[in-house]
Amino acid sequence: xxxxxxxxxxxxxxxxxxxxxxxxxxxxxxxxxxxxxxxxxxxxxxxxxxxxxxxxxxxxxxxxxxxxxxxxxxxxxxxxxxxxxxxxxxxxxxxxxxxxxxxxxxxxxxxxxxxxxxxxxxxxxxxxxxxxxxxxxxxxxxxxxxxxxxxxxxxxxxxxxxxxxxxxxxxxxxxxxxxxxxxxxxxxxxxxxxxxxxxxxxxxxxxx
Length: 208
Description:
This protein is an alpha+beta fold.
């Protein structure tokens, strides 16, 4: 009986040892990653920003240019005989545009650069009131200056022969000149030298 008990005890010890070994082999092995096979993290590509268009530089518009025209002849056109010494010898109608807002008075000169004796002055007027038009055959236009005939007022084209150019020039001034009536073109041009804000010309032709 005592022998049987000893045998049972030894059998129990053997069974416990075998279970321990089996449990040990049943444990999962720990797997470590191979550094050589590690995949580098994917890089996210970022598109380059679109090129920025440079801003367009806008040039400020130029100021309005003063212009001189006539309803009876075009620039470089023929002046009708009505306005010459062969007709009624009256001054032609003129129109102005773009006169500076700060202008106080106007001055007007008409001359013939093709005269045999040199430039011939046909019309000199100054201290003209600001306006958009100069009427035909105007009698009370500003202060009349002296023309090359030694008279005041308008003297129309009167060439001795051939076709001559007649240049009308209007000056916008920042003041009145205050000259006496009968001033010559040279005196008027000297007086306006520091007062011109703008000027405009109109060229007409006349021939016999």
